[in-house]
From TrEMBL:
Gene name of the encoded protein: AKTIP
SMART domains tied to this protein: UBCc
Protein name: AKT interacting protein
UniProt region (Disordered), positions on chain: 1-61, 250-293
Membrane topology of the entry: Peripheral membrane protein
One Gene Ontology cellular component: plasma membrane
Organism in which the protein naturally occurs: Anolis carolinensis (Green anole)
Pfam families associated with the record: UQ_con
PANTHER family xrefs: UBIQUITIN-CONJUGATING ENZYME E2
UniProt keyword annotations, A-Z: Apoptosis, Cell membrane, Cytoplasm, Membrane, Protein transport, Transport
Localization of this protein: Cell membrane; Cytoplasm
GO biological process, one term: lysosome organization
A single GO molecular function term of this UniProt record: ubiquitin conjugating enzyme activity
Domain of life, per lineage: Eukaryota
Length: 293
């Protein structure tokens, strides 16, 4: 029972007179009491000590030592935002598709429509660091090594760090890497090449360089229908023309394009008064109808 409840003021029991005098004298002689210090309850036996949870930054650190400071959910959101930016940019001749297995891997293809690499169809894969966007620059590797000064002749990797020496968060985006990968086939740069042979031929023997470029384009075209380099349901693959399948898809795309063009032309039509009536110099001219009086 709680002692405070037992000392109720409504109690009718009276103390003896001698007991009251002894209690008063004891209170006078005893020193003033201070409030007792608060103490934690004793630790029970076999108790497991509780540890302070680690900070999110430390808990998000992967086992391989890579610091993913934003966690998997924020990383997925960031990559989804990056892919939305790619779609909005509408890069000419460049198409990408995130992998089914990992959002950190994107499959793509570049179509070159003019210049030295005309008719080139180059498939590639973009590898994104797992601590994106605070990590290093994403890598772009072609499925087949292309004869180009900035493409490694063995691995097929494009020298992306040339344009993005330091990846800056909220400033650099993946669509810029894709645009750079397209631009290198139209504007050749030979400084500090990954393929010294291609750089020397471009500077000293342009005809031989063009010949090797044509051979490289033909090789990529001949291997276009090969299975994807990485087994993934979303990997970009090509198949020969099949009228039973592709004619219907082509018709749908052309029909949709025609509808969009018709809607755009209708929206550009302006209805209303002409600025100047033919045969007159009066602006906003129109025959006014007189109301009967």
């Amino acid at each position: 029972m709680n002692p405070f409840w037992s000392m109720s003021t409504s109690s009718t029991r009276k103390r003896p007179e001698t007991e009251e005098k002894a209690l008063v004298s004891e209170l006078k002689n005893s020193p003033p009491r201070t409030a007792p210090k608060k103490q934690l309850p004793s630790i029970p036996k076999n108790a497991v000590p509780m540890t302070k949870p680690a900070s999110p930054a430390l808990s998000a650190q992967s086992t391989n030592g890579t610091h993913a400071s934003y966690g998997p959910f924020y990383l997925e959101y960031s990559l989804l935002a990056e892919f939305t930016l790619v779609v909005k940019q509408k890069l000419p001749g460049v198409y990408v598709q995130p992998s089914y297995q990992s959002a950190l891997m994107w499959f793509g293809v570049i179509f070159i429509r003019h210049g030295l690499y005309q008719d080139g169809v180059f498939k590639f894969t973009v590898y994104i660091p797992d601590n994106y966007p605070d990590g290093d620059c994403p890598r772009l590797v072609f499925d087949l090594p292309i004869f180009h000064p900035l493409v490694d002749p063995v691995s097929g990797e494009l020298d992306v760090k040339r344009a993005f020496a330091k990846w800056r968060r909220n400033h650099n985006h993946i669509w810029q890497i894709l645009m750079y990968a397209r631009r290198v086939f139209y504007k050749i740069d030979t400084t500090s090449p990954l393929n010294p042979e291609a750089a020397v031929l471009y500077e000293k023997d342009i005809q031989l360089f063009k010949s090797k470029v044509v051979d490289s384009v033909r090789l990529c075209s001949s291997r276009l229908f090969d299975p994807p380099k990485i087994e993934d349901p979303y990997a970009i693959s090509f198949s020969p023309w099949n009228p039973a399948i592709h004619d219907e898809a082509r018709e749908k795309m052309l029909t949709q394009k025609k509808k969009e063009e018709d809607q755009q032309s209708k929206s550009m039509q302006v209805s209303g008064l002409s600025w100047v009536k033919p045969g007159s110099v009066q602006p906003f001219s129109k025959e006014e109808k007189t109301l009967p009086t």
